[in-house]
UniProtKB/TrEMBL annotation:
GO molecular function term, any single one: integrin binding
Gene, per the UniProt record: Itga2b_1
The UniProt record lists the keyword Magnesium: no
Subcellular location per the Swiss-Prot or TrEMBL entry: Membrane
Domain Integrin alpha second immunoglobulin-like: 3-76
GO cellular component terms attached to this protein's record: external side of plasma membrane; integrin complex
Name of the molecule in the record: ITA2B protein
GO biological process, alphabetically ordered: angiogenesis; cell adhesion mediated by integrin; cell-cell adhesion; cell-matrix adhesion; integrin-mediated signaling pathway
Keywords for the protein's UniProt record, in alphabetical order: Glycoprotein, Integrin, Membrane
């Protein structure tokens, strides 16, 4: 009929976390109750795809006809919002109309103006992430002409990186 808060006490039994809730004392014979529970569980990052709760109704009456139990499996979904930030230094490049690629040269100036692209991938939470893959496509050819000459690729923070096409093919 009415709603009231339960008195619950957490404890640990044989390495298992147990929460005992008093539903009514005394409870009238034939009483029917519905219990809605909201649980806050931390440290689920390594729990896999689901967490299982074993619920059991026990009576202190003697004799107790049954101690009904039920198992509830709840899917665990990790949530994390990723943010990609990028910047080019310089922000704008204007090539002179008289500039031409110098074939066979090993001087950087003969291959174009240096532009550095910096990308930062941030986890905005709330969960942690692992196994993230960032694919970045950089147009390096325009038809048969070199658009961007890819000189080097660097990472920070324990990031693994694979690249294609070959970096610095003319070894400038």
């Amino acid at each position: 009929q009415g709603q009231e808060k339960l008195s619950c006490n957490p404890k640990k039994e044989n390495g298992t976390h147990v929460v005992l809730c008093e539903l009514g004392n005394p409870m009238k014979a034939g009483a029917r109750i519905t219990v809605d529970m909201e649980l806050s569980v931390s440290g689920l990052e390594d729990m896999g795809d689901a967490i299982t709760f074993h619920l059991q109704l026990r009576s202190k009456n003697s004799p107790s006809p049954s101690n009904a139990s039920v198992t509830v499996t709840v899917p665990v979904e990790a949530e994390a919002e990723m943010e990609l930030r990028g910047n080019s230094l310089p922000a704008t490049v204007v090539l002179p109309t008289s500039w031409h690629w110098v074939e066979g040269s090993r001087r950087l100036e003969d291959h174009g103006i240096k532009v550095e692209h910096v990308y930062e991938l941030h986890n905005k939470g709330p969960g942690t992430v692992s196994g993230v893959t960032l694919s970045l496509a950089i147009p390096h050819l325009l038809g048969n002409h070199v658009l961007l000459y890819l000189l080097e690729l660097g990472t920070e923070g324990g990031t693994n990186c694979s690249h294609h096409p070959a970096l610095n093919p003319a070894q400038v």
